[in-house]
Structure formats: C-alpha cells, structure tokens
Amino acid sequence: FYGSDMGSRWMRQQGYGTAVSSTVPSLLVSVFAQTVNQPFVRSSIMIQKPGEELASRTFPNFSMIRHLASTKGPASLWLGLDAAILKTAPKYMVAVVIKDYMGQ
User: Fold this and answer.
1) How many independent structural domains does the chain possess?
2) Which UniProt keywords apply (predicted)?
C-alpha cells in the first residue's frame, strides 16, 4: 500500500478529490506490479506443460523467459497482461478505497 498511500497523499496536496486521490494511485501501482510480474506468470504457466524440457533446468522460469523472448519476441512475455490487469486492478483499488475510508 506504500505507493498508493504516497500517491494519494501527493494528489490530495495538489487539490484532487478523495475519490480520484484514492483510485488513480492504486490503479497505477497495480498496473506497474502486473507489468513487472507478467513475464514470470507467463513462464510459470508455460513450464507446467507436460514434457516441457525447460522445466528440468536449474532456473526453469528464466530459461522459459529467454526461450519465449528469442522464439516469439520480447512482447510475448506480456501476453495476457490485459486480462491480468482487468482481474486484479479493481480488487486492489477497492481494497485501497476501503482502507482510506476506514482511516478517515
């Protein structure tokens, strides 16, 4: 919640309303977190395929990330990011709004 709290505090100091100050920072933090995590989520899913030879490597996630980037291009690492954001961002935003409301 740290990034959302700092962003919310800054937006309130700039004169934004409570609703905008609570939702925009939490949305931005959620999008950033999903974007950073998505390559690891994608590689974790890909190495679960039965018979996947990269799953037996020392660092299977990194091996799969390297394989996906070299065979399908770097953008393939973020396949499914839109669905991940649509799934998690609203939950995080609601949690932050409730936390802010309860803290007032």
Assistant:
1) 1
2) Membrane, Transmembrane
